[in-house]
Write a structure and sequence with these properties.
Keywords: Membrane, Transmembrane, Transmembrane helix. The protein is mainly α. The longest helix is centred in the middle third of the chain and has 104 residues. The chain is rod-shaped. The mean pLDDT is 86.
Length: 107
Amino acid sequence: MDQTTVSYIVAAGSICGIISAYWGYSRGAKKDTYSAGAKTGEQQADITYIKQRTDDILLEQRDTNRKLEGHSTQLSDHAVAIARIDESTKSAHLRLNQLCNEKGNGQ
């Protein structure tokens, strides 16, 4: 083999090496990009899920607050009714005492 042939072989080998290195680099870059995209997509899905659950919790809390307000109103109504019954019982007790006193004094 002469010197020129060896030079061509070395040049072809160098070019093949450069092409193969670039091909490997671009393939690795695609994998990195794909992995980064998958990770970003997963994070966005997690954030979306968290937002939905937060909205659900807020709706449940509003519903619970409405129910509690309803129960609070009922308790307030019951407290008023109990106060009326208490006053009525006191009044009836006073009348009974008066009747007993009148009956006892009249004999």
